[in-house]
Amino acid sequence: MYSHDVVIVGSGLAGLRAALEMAGHLDVAIISKVYPSRSHSGAAQGGVAAALSNMDGDSVEAHTYDTVKGADFIGDQDAIEILCSDAPRTIIELEHYGCAFSRTDENKIAQRAFGGHSFKRACYSADRTGHALLHTLFEQSMKRGAELQIYSEWYVTRLIIEDGICRGVVALDIKTGKLEIFHAKTILFATGGYGRAFKITSNAYANTGDGITAAYKAGIPLQDMEFVQYHPTGLYEHGILLSEAARGEGGYLINSDGDRFMSKYAPTKMELGPRDIVSRSEQTEINEGRGAGPKKDYVLLDLRHLGKAKIMERLPQIYHLAKDFIDVDAIKDPVPIQPTAHYSMGGIPADNDCQVFLNETELCKGFFAAGECSCISVHGANRLGTNSLLEALVFGRRAGKKMLHATNEMKFSPVNEKKEISAAKLEIDKLLYNKGSEHLASIREELQETMTYKVGVYRNANDMEQAQQKVNELKDRFTRVKVSEKGKNFNVNIQEALELSHMLEYSELIVAGAKARKESRGAHSRDDYPNRDDENWMKHTLVFRQPDGSCELKYKPVRVTRFEPEERTY
Ligand SMILES: Cc1cc2nc3c(=O)[nH]c(=O)nc-3n(C[C@H](O)[C@H](O)[C@H](O)COP(=O)(O)OP(=O)(O)OC[C@H]3O[C@@H](n4cnc5c(N)ncnc54)[C@H](O)[C@@H]3O)c2cc1C
């Protein structure tokens, strides 16, 4: 058994930022299933938002309003105010830590336009912003030496909560296959998003919702799981992200007739409408037969008019992604794109200090969540681009500050080591030694197709009913899944099986929340209920696990401070 005052699961921006706040004051450990600098934060491209007013008359107030409106009025406004007010300080802090932001001619931090933001407020490092931020924080963590202990390539399988107190986690050492308890006074989950349940997705292979599933299985409800963001510009058939920065720098979206179709859907913002609206517009063009290509199933991102110099200076990664993956030269030709599952608005419910809720009102002692795995909820039904790197940094720091106090006031609560290790071992043995012949990859593929095609950009009762049945069928087949690799060292096969079990578990919750929510709001858009319904649905979904494994939905109110709901047009 390992013992630390604080255990942080996840070494993306949220986990590392929290760790830096506590290093040197407490004995802090970070556990990550991938090497820290490979966390998905490092894949972020476009930018991180802050009303710095470096370019124009932006204000924190405007940022707050844009975020509330972007969230389709279901974000908690006090949390959004914290996010936006703390943004300028956060950027300066990262700059002082050594992050190399792109500059203006006057040597200020440059800012570009992004969807749903009414001012140029995305601070960026070319189109590799996440890479620059993550490496900056990782450098700072390395500098702290022994003050931060990093367990890299350890896979957390279980969260231990008893009597409303969080006590530790069980983790698998991927190198040796050994299971160990990590005992702690306080635990932070910063385990990232869950987009891998979809076939077309921008998310890293690691984004399999392990953290949210472990929390759910330990008795924590999950919030707003139905809100999954589809990003408008995924590389055709691959889903790999081509950042919104491409449109922020002036890129067009065109259909097979060469028309800039956004003029029909968001005449004032055009390509820089918020993501939910742009994704729906693309899908409508495709559904109505104006898609491009032999199957008419994609639209085009046109960068040609930006010219080679600008593309290579501001969007080099996008250029190379299109060239390397589908052999399109973005300087000469428009790039085939389609909506791609991108961001998880839902997750582990937490208050403004990242303390996790045990139910509608009570907090779980010693358990915190920050970053994409949490639902605080600053993004409501639709996140604005560049607000989530910001969220991970702002709330990672807040979690660290709160945990510093909380940990000092807590003692270690006992853990039944034998029981926890046996339970974790049983779960793995069931996979290793069942007599079934179901293929892991087929189950995963069928799940991903179901989620993309039945619970996608547009949803309806009939499709979601089919999705629910399919997920149930796949869960049943999963009990007979064959794990051929039986070894202990680096058994990626067993890790893939555990990840798939998580994807099956939370996909059921996405479908359950979406089926129940009989309205269209933000990223959740139903053909059969096309309008937003504030009277009945201006509330957060909470899904609880029942003892028999089924789920129960409850609801909790949205916190409105300054901005009353209004019609959302752009
Ligand atoms: C391609 C792409 C581009 C993006 N671009 C932008 C952008 O320009 N601007 C913006 O604001 N947002 C962007 N986002 C979103 C943003 O990057 C993420 O929301 C944010 O970085 C999440 O940070 P995080 O710290 O919560 O989690 P991550 O960075 O995802 O880190 C999760 C961590 O949890 C660990 N972990 C997970 N499960 C386990 C387990 N079972 N055991 C041990 N460790 C575990 C992982 O190893 C990892 O270290 C983008 C996302 C993608 C996918």
Write up this protein.
This protein has 17 helices and 20 strands. The chain is of the alpha/beta class and 570 residues long. The strands form 5 sheets. Strands 1, 2, 6, 7, 8, 9, 16 and 17 form an 8-stranded mixed sheet that branches. Strands 11-14-13-12 form a 4-stranded antiparallel sheet. A 3-stranded antiparallel sheet has the order 3-5-4.
Strand content: 15-25%
Continuous helix count: 17
Structural class: alpha/beta
Q: Which overall shape is indicated by the principal axes computed on the Cα atoms? A: globular
Rounded to the nearest angstrom, the distance between the terminal CA atoms is 55 Å
Helix amount: 25-40%
The quaternary state of the protein chains shown equals single chain
Bound molecules: flavin-adenine dinucleotide
User: Quick one: biggest sheet?
Assistant: 8 strands, mixed
The Cα radius of gyration reads 22 Å
Q: How many DSSP-defined strands?
A: 20
The poorly predicted ranges are none
Mean pLDDT: 96
Quick overview of this protein structure:
The chain has 570 residues and is an alpha/beta fold. It has 17 helices and 20 strands.
Task: Lay out the secondary structure.
Blueprint: E1 2-9, H1 13-22, E2 28-32, E3 48-49, H2 60-70, H3 77-85, H4 87-97, E4 111-112, E5 122-123, H5 129-143, E6 148-152, E7 154-162, E8 165-173, E9 178-189, H6 210-217, E10 222-223, E11 228-235, H7 245-248, E12 252-254, H8 262-265, H9 275-287, E13 299-302, H10 307-314, H11 316-326, E14 335-344, E15 348-349, E16 355-357, E17 363-369, E18 374-375, H12 387-409, H13 417-433, H14 440-454, H15 461-478, H16 492-516, H17 534-537, E19 539-545, E20 551-557
Parallel strand pairs: 1-2, 1-9, 2-6, 9-17, 15-18
Antiparallel strand pairs: 3-5, 4-5, 7-8, 8-9, 10-19, 11-14, 12-13, 13-14, 16-17, 19-20
The chain binds flavin-adenine dinucleotide.
Flavin-adenine dinucleotide binds next to α1, β2, α5, β7 and α6.
